[in-house]
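WARN retry 2 of 3 for item q-0093 after timeout on previous attempt; input resubmitted unchanged.
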Amino acid sequence: MRIVVNWIRLLVAVFICELVGNVGSLFTLPALASWYPSLIKPSFNPPAWLFGPVWLALYLLMGVSLYLIWSARTRASNHSAELLAFGVQLALNLLWSFLFFGLRSPLYGLVGIALLWASILATIILFAKVSKPAAYLLSPYILWVSFALVLNYSIWALN
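OK item q-0093 returned
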């Protein structure tokens, strides 16, 4: 069986996700230089250098997942519900960066990341009905956001 890849579509899907990460960094980077280091963090807080590579990889996986759903569109179904769910979780991903780092609010960030986690789960459930690989590609994302939710809660509780 030969797999045909629409490279333009794949690159666009990955670009969209990576772009959201880059826009989020506009809120994150200034806070990393000033506000974030002043916070009390739990012992399990990862080193700062780890976040960039992890998010870069997660956005790549998200983009490939999006590509698989986008490519599964047919005349019978354009998978608009799945694509909408993906868009919502992507918007909430960006919103979390704004709430936590932009507003410098662990509390607002906690609310935002809880909504993000729920929207990722909904996206995975919807994607699984169309493409199991697309859903599986989002597994590292929800695992990382689960960890980030616990970390966000801990930072809020400590500060």
